[in-house]
Design goal:
This protein is mainly α and 102 residues long. The chain is 78% helix and 0% strand. It contains five helices and no strands.
């Protein structure tokens, strides 16, 4: 299923149709798939954006790399482990300046 996000070409060809109604239908289908697949990332992006725009920009860059970058699928585990480690450090060391001022 993750290949649908990284390489949407076959999905788009399979559901292709001519006209405005078909364009809205394929957009709705693909949008709902992305929402179901990436809702947690969307929530993290929203929370990071509310807390700190620099963190949101960094997380967005990571997400774009994972989705479109060469070797993005191989970067998922190390990136995830690094983010879990960073969150554990924030919990264990309250004064750590990872989140910037505030």
């Amino acid at each position: 299923m993750p290949d649908r996000c990284r390489h949407p070409g076959p999905f788009l060809i399979q559901h292709y149709g001519r006209g405005t109604a078909a364009a809205f239908r394929i957009g709705r289908i693909h949008g709902l798939f992305c929402l179901g697949c990436c809702w947690a990332l969307m929530l993290v992006g929203f929370a990071a954006g509310v807390a700190n725009l620099w963190w949101m920009a960094a997380l967005t860059a990571l997400m774009v790399f994972e989705k479109t970058g060469r070797g993005g699928d191989r970067g998922v585990l190390p990136i995830g482990a690094g983010l879990i480690l960073a969150s554990a450090l924030v919990l264990l060391v309250p004064g750590l300046p990872l989140l910037g001022p505030g």
